[in-house]
Amino acid sequence: xxxxxxxxxxxxxxxxxxxxxxxxxxxxxxxxxAEESRMxxxxxxxxxxxxxxxxxxxxxxxxxxxxxxxGWQEADRGAFDWQVFHxxxxxxxxxxxxxxxxxxxxxxVELFHQRAKFADHHIVELADGTRKTAKHILIATGGRPVxxxxxxxxxxxxxxxxxxxxxxxxxxxxxxGGFIACEFATILxxxxxxxxxxxxxxxxxxxxxxxxxxxxxxxxxxxxxxLRLGLSPAGLEKSGNRVTARFDDGSKDDFDAVFFATGRAPxxxxxxxxxxxxxxxxxxxxxxxxxxxxxxxxxxxxxxVTDRVNLTPVAIRExxxxxxxxxxDNPRRVNHDLVASAVYLRPHELGTxxxxxxxxxxxxxxxxxxxxxxxxxxxxxxxxxxxxxxxLVDPDSDKVLGCHIFGPDAGEMIQLAAIPVTMGATKADxxxxxxxxxxxxxxxxxxxxxxxxxxxx
Length: 457
Ligand SMILES: Cc1cc2nc3c(=O)[nH]c(=O)nc-3n(C[C@H](O)[C@H](O)[C@H](O)COP(=O)(O)OP(=O)(O)OC[C@H]3O[C@@H](n4cnc5c(N)ncnc54)[C@H](O)[C@@H]3O)c2cc1C
Ligand SMILES: NC(=O)c1ccc[n+]([C@@H]2O[C@H](COP(=O)([O-])OP(=O)(O)OC[C@H]3O[C@@H](n4cnc5c(N)ncnc54)[C@H](O)[C@@H]3O)[C@@H](O)[C@H]2O)c1
Description:
The chain has helices at 14-25, 41-46, 48-57, 60-69, 82-107, 159-162, 179-190, 210-222, 312-327, 357-363, 376-380, 410-423, 427-432; strands at 5-10, 31-34, 110-112, 116-120, 123-126, 131-139, 143-145, 171-175, 194-199, 226-229, 233-239, 242-247, 252-255, 257-260, 264-266, 299-301, 341-343, 349-354, 366-373, 387-393, 400-407, 452-454. With 457 residues, it is an alpha/beta fold. The protein folds into three domains: 5-144 and 265-327, FAD/NAD(P)-binding domain; 153-262, 3-Layer(bba) Sandwich (FAD/NAD(P)-binding domain); 341-454, Enolase-like, domain 1. The strands form five sheets. Strands 1, 2, 3, 4, 5, 6 and 16 form a seven-stranded mixed sheet that branches. It has a six-stranded antiparallel sheet with strand order 17-18-21-20-19-22, with helices on both faces. Strands 10-9-8-14 form a four-stranded parallel sheet, with helices on one face.
């Protein structure tokens, strides 16, 4: 059978654009790609990129305070102008969107700026009714924020909305305790918004190392976020221009904006999946094997829609590996076991790879090398902010099983630590590296004695 395309990609986000560009540009495949919104997807348009720029924008208060501590008597954060920032942000996102589009065109990908869905396992139907046939189809449709099922949920905003606000709210509530809630609370607080974060657990960032979670929770409070733990929303009501939130402890409070950061779901609805026989997992994600192949052999899926590890570099790696395997005669699988990540908080970020102390202790035995200290830079300025470095080491093999850093630029540090940890480095390998002095990161190679040991269970 002759097909219009060797590969048709549904979704122009992190995973889709990488797969399309490499398949067409490097492996010579005939590729089509449909994107219903803006090229670049979540990360570029409404995720990592605008979020990180807003994190940078939100640093002024802490930077000014730090500099006052260094003798800059008049150091002042000044007044933040959302309109100025927003104009620049829009221009930057337009630039990136254009760059992603031209990258595809240069590689020879045919773009369709419309929604696509399955007509069958070799045919996609575009929103204008055109049908395209393809030997292989890649689902790279990402995820969508989900709101909890509470009365008045329609009054709440989602993460996409932060980047579209005409003006900043005076007072905001964030609901949730994951990546997005913590990063958005840090941003809004830093930009001068009176920020409340309500989370049902006893510390934010469930799933991360407990000590780091406690430090992140304490830091949110220290910077002025009103962190209310053990609290869930029961409902939202409109009151004039504001929104009243009712909580499960009977309390209520008024806000100019309420954001739900209560997780994301794989974007699989209205995709015509019923015309294909593709199987979904219990969580509604596209079920794939280690080659990102679905239960239908001609259809593959990568990125958040498969709900494996929902991060941009993972989606990119999955997309690249898929096309190398299918079109490049170079079979490649993605190892999802060791994935470094960072939560961009201020003043200290959380960078992490490998097992948490709790996971390592459960496996046992494990030696914990941990240092909690006030870094030179902020301590001199009079700040009490504490930093943490932690290595979890298997006492039998000496292998480093996990590394957790809570400190300034921990995202940058964990990227570098991820190299030896991924290579299977031992504690002795870390110790053999000469320290770079004076840095905060040197602690990673100078922790000589075991802080505590968790025995075998
Ligand atoms: C606020 C926020 C901050 C984040 N920060 C980080 C971070 O700092 N670091 C990090 O690694 N990750 C971060 N992430 C996660 C990261 O954005 C995602 O893991 C990544 O974008 C997933 O890529 P993807 O290709 O699977 O999907 P997406 O990037 O979501 O792309 C899917 C694309 O498909 C399109 N689409 C969907 N259905 C159709 C259809 N039927 N037809 C045509 N087009 C369709 C969508 O419009 C979208 O453009 C963040 C996410 C959010 C929400
Ligand atoms: N720095 C980064 O790499 C980064 C940043 C942002 C997002 N992301 C990615 O995006 C994903 C989505 O982020 P997220 O923060 O929305 O999801 P998340 O799964 O990290 O956190 C969701 C939070 O909402 C809480 N929650 C769920 N239902 C609730 C309810 N009914 N009431 C109250 N709380 C409820 C959960 O307990 C959890 O704390 C992340 O898992 C991550 O993969 C990554």
